[in-house]
Amino acid sequence: MGKRRVPDLYRAPFPLYTVGVHRETGLVITAGGGGASKTGIKNGLHFLRMERVDGQLTASLAHSFDTDPRATMSLALGGDVIAAGQDASCHLLRFKERSGKPPGKGGGGDQGVQRRKGGRSQAAGDASPETHNDTTQITVESVGEVQTDFSTDALQKCVRFSADLNLLITGGADGHVRVWEYPAMKKKFDFKAHEGEIEDLDISPDNKLVTVGRDFTCCVWRNDQLATGLRWHENIPNIPEKMYRYQACRFAKVEDKAEALRLYTVQIPHKRDRRPPPCYLTKWDGRNFLPLLTQPCGNEVISCLAVSDSGTFLGLGTVTGSVAIYISFSLQKLYYVQEAHGIVVTDLAFLPDTPQGRTVLGDNEMAMLSVAVDSRCKMHVLPNRKSFPVWLVLLLCALMVVGVIFLLQQAFPGFI
Q1: Is 410 helix (H, G, I), strand (E, B) or coil?
Q2: Pick the CATH number of 8-114+134-385 from 2.40.400.10, 3.40.640.10, 2.120.10.10, 2.130.10.10
Q3: Which of 34-38, 275-279, 412-416 reaches the highest mean pLDDT?
Q4: Mean of the per-residue pLDDT values for the chain?
Q5: How distant, in Å, are the alpha carbons of 156, 205, 238, 241 from that of 245?
Q6: What's the pTM value of the predicted model, to 2 decimals?
Q7: Of 16, 86, 371, 411, which has fewest CB within 10 angstroms of its CB?
Q8: What string of DSSP letters covers 37-99?
Q9: What is the mean pLDDT of residues 336-346?
């Protein structure tokens, strides 16, 4: 723990706001930009391919897709479709991988495939018609767009797919939740969930929706009907009702308990003081929404939350650029890097528990990506925690007993 340096996995030519990992291919998709302002900063999605080179994780740019004049501020992955939040709209983009040389250079912002680290580039004069190109190319096409926010300063702030990919849920600055039938993108529900901006939302496997607003509330919905409001601080003394607000929420399964479900929320101070109070993590029963455990998680204001596939690990990013990983069972900190980024961490994503993800992971127990406005994408790795096999523990105990008996025999002849 403590302040240490985490090398960059990748550095983009624009601020990064969101990141995701495609389960089937292992591609890392990062996005961001400078928006519509005339600053010369581009807007785009970058597709990164990760691999191990000499035991080290590296990433290379496999494809870039131009999204000018709008920056992507949020995204969700549903199969081979990206739901990208761009200003007041949700833009649906389908990407595909195929082998061989693309039919033309560029197009749609495509910058082609860059040479991987450690790879060998080919001189232009070496190319010939007989050369077989096995390089995998990525193509991206727009398959739809819907307006998802209607406020004066319209901005879609969050988007999620349901587990069965039948629904797409969006939330934005106008406080409305809009539920869309996917892939038809026919609006199913549109309701006012919060007064002011929606900070985060998530949907459970049985389609219960949880939303977090800047109005100090965290709500559970069945379709468009309010089921309950969460109250995390009722059992914690000396915390006034509007001292904290909810910042993030995520559902997660429980390892080795197929029927169990958990919800995790982050609470941050509403006002920033010179001596800031701690932020809090709360674990809830995801079926009846009763609080199970609340723990402080440091004085740095939390900006984002992520949960691993297994539900074992929680990732936290802060507005000061720090990154932490907690174990979900006890909400205890396992990993912490102070100011891993130079500015606010905007999004986190764990490597998925898939064959592709495990290949990249190697001998490590877990790996998590973080992105920030400093344009950097970093990889945070948790090595396998050392443990002793049971037979070794028993052997050591037996040796200790023999040793004690030997010492007693030496000190008191005739003891045995």
Answers
A1: helix
A2: 2.130.10.10
A3: 275-279
A4: 88
A5: 20, 26, 15, 9
A6: 0.85
A7: 411
A8: SSSS--EEEEEEEEEEETTEEEEEEEEEEE-TT----EEEEETTEEEEEETTEEEEEEEEEEE
A9: 96
